[in-house]
Amino acid sequence: MNRRVLVLGLLLLCPRAGFAADPPVRATSTVDRTAAWVADRITFTVDIVCDRGVDILLDDLAKEKLRVNGLEIVSSDSSATTDAAERTTHRLRYVLTTYRVDLPVVSVEPISVRYYARRPGQRLQDVAPAGEIVVPGARVAFRSTLPDAQVTPALRD
Fold it and tell me: How many Cα atoms occupy the beta-carbon half-sphere of 103 within 13 Å?
């Protein structure tokens, strides 16, 4: 009986004991369309939410590091907001397009992003990464008026 009371007391004092803690950084990604035609603009949006005292290395999300298959990066922008609970949300938008007609699906590869824990008075250059999170990629079907069986589009006047 005493052991049960002791275990119950410990569980009440430590409600998260035995449960996996929420990760300090959460990442999601979305595209604004599931299919695209030649020269359509596709917006690939990445949202990363960092808990208090944690931040990401934005260099890992530079448009030069974004790996795309069959797409071209037209532009990119980013913003950061902090809420009342001191969680920082980074939103990155990449505008993509394609002029290729030989791929049935175009895609964005998953992106690996490092994060670190901030400490007062510590410079960013002196901070070692605390972990890594993977931002999911995306696939978009490509649509065309060209016949599927045609290997290379024929040039004509």
Answer: 18
Structure token pair of residue 55:
């931040």
Q: What is the pLDDT of residues 23-66, one digit of tens each?
A: 899 999 999 998 999 899 999 999 999 999 899 999 999 999 99
Q: Tokens representing 64? A: 């030069």
Name which of 53, 69, 157, 146 is nearest 106 in CA terms: 69
Closest CA to 113 of 130, 126, 125, 95: 130
Structure tokens, 65: 């590091």
d(CA 10, CA 17): 9
Distance CA 83, CA 90 (A): 12
- DSSP characters for 72-141? EEEEEEEEEEE-TT--EEEEEEEEEE----S-SEEEE--EEEEEEE--TT--GGGPPP-EEEEE--EEEE
- pTM (two decimals): 0.76
Q: How are beta strands 138-142 and 35-36 bridged, if at all?
A: parallel
